[in-house]
Design goal:
Helix content of chain B: 25-40%
Number of helices of chain A: 17
Number of helices of chain B: 9
Oligomer: heterodimer
CATH superfamily of the largest domain in chain A: Transferase(Phosphotransferase) domain 1
Number of strands of chain A: 16
Structural class of chain A: alpha/beta
Strand order of the largest sheet of chain B: 3-2-1-11-12-9
Largest sheet of chain A: 6 strands, antiparallel
CATH class of the largest domain in chain A: Mainly Alpha
Largest sheet of chain B: 6 strands, mixed
Distance between the termini of chain B: 39 Å
Shape of chain B: globular
Distance between the termini of chain A: 76 Å
Helix content of chain A: 25-40%
Radius of gyration of chain A: 25 Å
């Protein structure tokens, strides 16, 4: 049966075929329905003419292999596959919504809108990396937004699963990806670094904010290789009104050396949703590219091929956990403070890329309606923030590895758990119930956080409470 | 006494027959080498992971101290539909001077010969060189001239084996390292080092060669027994390492007066 030319109304393995949505060189897409299907579905049929080279299968085979293992709201739900030999097809959820491509066509768009869109994208990418998969072809056309704003990644034909053989690499032996978005290490043939996806996120942010592509759309290998040594024009050159924090984030994503980029997509999502907390480095104000000596050095370095990192995506993530430290800086519990500090130091020593989020919860003041109450609340907020900074100073960590947040909420446990969930926190470190002074924020709270948190929770006790 | 009576606990197992056409989970175990502790640990592990049928890829005997106990477990399973093929150690035990073997291996062959009684000898004499079930092909060493006991330790040897088997999935042992080879579109073989415990999809339109590793004598510095699980329904392979009581196995090797280095090998996994 020729599945690439089905008529609406025909049936394939119990699926009723609807309209043809897309007809490309590689695949044909139909909307399909099934009795009791529950959600809209799409059938993807690869174009495999008789005698076509086996490499035509590869993208299809890889997508089938990987999509079947993925779950969650950030990928299309997997339905089924037809057997490859006789009726090759995939059926998956048809994600209804706007594609990022539509937004990119309107670029430049306001930085705040770009931040919102790309934060959702980074959240989706982080979720993918947590499932051991690197997408390796992130581009606006492969990102669709659900009506509730969550991003969905589609097209896994070039993706890489950390536990499976890389069929794509074996097949092509040359860089594969989309010219505008491919990372420097992909150009070198390295397909096992999740930070390649972070580079693509940087390209998309750049594109949304400036309306320009940072590396154009080269068509030759030489053109591809330019990004190995030539950094992009700083985005604020194209868009002088662009906030410095945005340029900081974009150029951090676009670092040529993968190791200098953000460690995880979760960090990007955090910075895009907390722009005021982004520490500005030299990247933020830069208005020129690197000088010739730097470029020459990078070019020389680019000639040497570094071996791949050869680690599964979750291994990368494990080296860059986000650690939330819940503290009550004003409590005066010196022994407990030192213990928490020691626990955090251990964590920072173990994982050189971890990020510490110092957080405290402030009960909103009901009198804030009044002018004086508002000022009072503001000064209390500032006071807490200052204390958090003071607390963290002893860690002696560089600014980019620290974030500070004074949260407001009447229910401290729920506030912490929600914050942890929204910001992809991997571990919470907090003090135990000890004395009455702490109980309000930490004491009675820790048990509930342990029970409800979406991640590991370490409850620290001061030595005295051992007795 | 019939061989099925050797181990009554396995004689009653209701195993599904491999060539019945039903899709199932098949545990593939190779190079057991008379190590009953490792064998029982792997079988228990496989049952916990839903194995419904078993394949033994040869070298059931040799090196270890429990040839009778191992055959006592395996033979009834084969009687109930499990697959077993011949290994070079079985061939050596059945006769000949074994001049090509290293002296310590030869010593164990002679020792094992003395242990076996007629039913066990009949059992190993009846083992086929290769077996084929559905889209899978089973062989101890290489499908390319199975009787020459070629070691598949590179992509070229793997490609020859996959060509010769003609089946989408070939399972082999002999080399005591777990490994997965597959053909690319260019026809060349590629090698993949499997992540332990991860189900690897193996699509039926390319060829795959899975080296199961060794149940009874791992040689990669890890003492844990190695085997793999083939899930026909999900079309996936999962490589496993199973910790077992290697100290007891090593103690028995010494007690039987077998070469010390064989006992050490179990203790170090090297």
């Amino acid at each position: 049966m020729d599945l690439t030319n089905l008529h609406p109304g025909s049936e394939v393995d119990g699926f009723r075929v609807g309209e043809k949505i897309h007809e490309g060189g590689m695949a044909v897409l139909y909307r399909v329905e099934r009795e009791g299907g529950g959600f809209p579905m799409l059938m993807k049929v690869p174009r495999l003419e008789f005698g076509s080279h086996p490499s035509c299968y590869v993208g299809f085979e890889v997508e089938q292999m990987i999509l079947e293992t993925l779950t969650g709201p950030h990928v299309p739900r997997w339905v089924t596959k037809g057997s490859l030999e006789d009726t090759p097809y995939l059926v998956m959820e048809y994600v209804e919504g706007r594609s990022l491509h539509e937004y990119a066509e309107r670029a430049p768009i306001p930085a705040e809108e770009a931040a919102r869109l790309v934060a959702a994208l980074a959240t989706a990418v982080h979720d993918l990396h947590r499932q051991e998969v690197i997408h390796l072809d992130i581009k606006p056309a492969n990102v669709i937004y659900r009506p509730d704003g969550r991003a969905v990644l589609v097209d896994f034909g070039l993706a890489r699963h950390g536990h499976f053989p890389d069929l794509v690499e074996e097949e092509f032996h040359r860089p594969v990806g989309t010219a505008a978005y491919i990372s420097p290490e992909q150009v070198k043939g390295n397909r096992d670094n999740p930070r390649s996806d972070l580079f693509a996120i940087g390209v998309i942010l750049y594109q949304l904010c400036t309306g320009q592509l940072p590396f154009g759309e080269p068509t030759t290998l030489g053109g591809f290789r330019r990004r190995l040594f030539l950094d992009p024009v700083p985005p604020r050159v194209w868009a002088p009104g662009l906030p410095e924090w945005m340029q900081e984030i974009i150029l951090h994503c676009l670092e040529i050396e993968a190791g200098k980029r953000y460690a995880t997509a979760a960090q990007i999502a955090f910075d895009l949703t907390h722009p005021d907390d982004v520490p500005l480095s030299g990247r933020a104000a830069r208005l020129k590219r690197a000088g010739l000596p730097v470029i020459a050095r990078r070019w020389w370095r680019s000639l040497r091929t570094k071996p791949g990192t050869n680690a599964a995506p979750t291994t990368h993530l494990a080296q860059a956990p986000q650690i939330l430290v819940a503290i009550d800086p004003g409590s005066g519990q010196e022994a407990l403070r030192r213990e928490i500090l020691a626990a955090v130091r251990q964590a920072t020593a173990a994982d050189a890329n971890c990020r510490i989020m110092c957080v405290t919860v402030l009960e909103p003041d009901i009198s804030t309606e009044q002018e004086t109450g508002h000022e009072l609340a503001n000064s209390l907020y500032t006071q807490r923030l200052v204390e958090l900074h003071h607390w963290a100073a002893e860690l002696r960590l560089p600014a980019h590895r620290l974030r500070f947040h004074v949260l407001e909420g009447t229910d401290a446990a729920a506030t912490l758990v929600e914050y942890a969930r929204q910001n992809h926190v991997d571990q919470i470190i907090m003090g135990a119930r000890g004395s009455s002074a702490l109980r309000r924020i930490l004491g009675s709270v820790s048990a509930r956080v342990v029970a409800e948190a979406p991640c590991t929770v370490t409850v620290v006790r001061s030595p005295r409470s051992h007795q | 006494m019939g061989i099925a009576a050797l181990n009554p606990s396995y004689a009653g197992l209701n195993l599904r027959i491999l060539n019945s056409g039903a899709v199932m989970k098949i545990a593939v175990l190779s190079d057991i080498h008379s190590n009953i502790e490792a064998l029982l640990a792997c079988l228990a592990h496989a049952r916990r992971h839903g194995a419904e049928q078993y394949v033994f890829l040869g070298d059931l005997l040799g090196y270890g101290a429990d040839p009778l106990a191992c055959i006592g477990v395996i033979a009834p399973m084969v009687g109930d539909g499990a697959v077993a093929v011949l290994g070079n150690h079985e061939e050596a035990i059945l006769g000949g001077l074994c001049e090509s073997m290293e002296p310590f291996a030869r010593e164990v062959v002679y020792w094992t010969r003395k242990q076996l009684r007629q039913p066990e000898r009949d059992f190993i004499r009846a083992l086929p060189m290769t077996a084929s079930r559905g889209n899978a092909f089973y062989v101890h060493a290489s499908a390319a001239s199975p009787g020459r006991w070629i070691y598949i330790d590179n992509a070229v040897a793997a490609a020859k084996c996959m060509d010769a088997s003609g089946a989408p999935l070939t399972f082999a042992g002999h080399v005591h390292h777990q490994c997965l080879y597959y053909t690319s579109g260019h026809g060349a073989a590629q090698v993949f080092n499997p992540v332990i415990g991860a189900a690897i999809p193996v699509s039926p339109h390319r060829r795959w060669l899975a080296i199961a590793g060794s149940v009874g004598q791992p040689r990669d510095g890890n003492t844990a027994a190695a085997y793999l699980l083939h899930d026909q329904q999900r079309e996936s392979l999962t490589f496993f390492r199973v910790p077992y009581d290697y100290l007891s196995a090593a103690r028995k090797v010494r007690a039987a007066g077998l070469p010390e280095r064989l006992a050490r090998r179990l203790e170090t996994g090297n």
